[in-house]
Write a structure and sequence with these properties.
The protein has 226 residues and is an alpha/beta fold. It has eight helices and 13 strands.
Length: 226
């Protein structure tokens, strides 16, 4: 399961992000400074899928911290800052950061950037119109799905739901989230309709293997996890 470590430092936007992540049941730890966050990550290597640092000044210490964090290949690093200097941006990315986010920006854009990095770290591979996760392959151009190399016949709604799960692999999603993401915010069905379609998906994906990728998260909803 994706766990995120955030250094907020009383940054209003990052505090909004923290609230959003908590409401959506992400694993989350917060720290007040980059040094403590770096030490925590080094004590628990590989424990965090994403670390978000808050950088408000040019200094070699932060660059050194990014280099130390980069030693974990399974962790993505995002730097959030108000600094717009191109040279400093290049220095941060060269040190090993995966994304350099300059404020001001909208909460929606920041959430989208977070989800993109989590998707990269989750093991989802993308190539053109294809998404691959574990033994599952989805081609968004042909709208076809394969598992273990075997074509799986899905209805349109089943396909849309599975695509959302793959695009948010290893992220816990509520039934309401899945309804909105898969079938649109205007969809009027009841949230428990998701349970019905999850059951359909599990049955069809189990035709080639008994290993279930779609996990039930008690009290939350569902999560795609190998």
């Amino acid at each position: 399961m994706a766990e995120i470590l955030i250094v907020a430092q009383q940054d209003p936007l990052l505090n909004q992000l923290i609230s959003y992540l908590r409401q959506n049941h992400f694993g989350l730890k917060t720290m007040t400074n980059n040094a403590d966050a770096t030490q925590l990550a080094e004590r628990h290597p590989g424990s965090f899928s994403l670390i978000i640092l808050n950088w408000q000044g040019a200094n070699s210490t932060t660059l050194s911290q990014i280099q130390r964090l980069r030693q974990s290949p399974t962790t993505a690093i995002m730097v959030v800052t108000t600094i717009t200097d191109t040279a400093q941006k290049i220095a941060v990315l060269t040190a090993g950061a995966d994304d350099f986010v300059t404020e001001p920006l909208s909460l929606l854009e920041l959430i989208t950037r977070v989800r993109v990095l989590l998707r990269r770290q989750s093991g989802v591979q993308t190539s053109g119109s294809q998404f691959r996760y574990s033994d599952l392959l989805i081609d968004t151009k042909t709208r076809q799905v394969w598992r273990n190399g075997v074509l799986v016949q899905l209805t349109q709604r089943e396909y849309q739901l599975l695509l959302v799960l793959v695009q948010h692999a290893e992220v816990q999603l509520s039934r309401a989230d899945l309804l909105a993401l898969a079938w649109g915010a205007d969809f009027t069905g009841q949230p428990n309709l998701i349970d019905v379609y999850i059951r359909y998906l599990r049955q069809k994906l189990a035709l080639t293997t008994t290993h279930q990728l779609i996990k039930t998260v008690r009290g939350v909803g569902y999560c795609l996890q190998a």
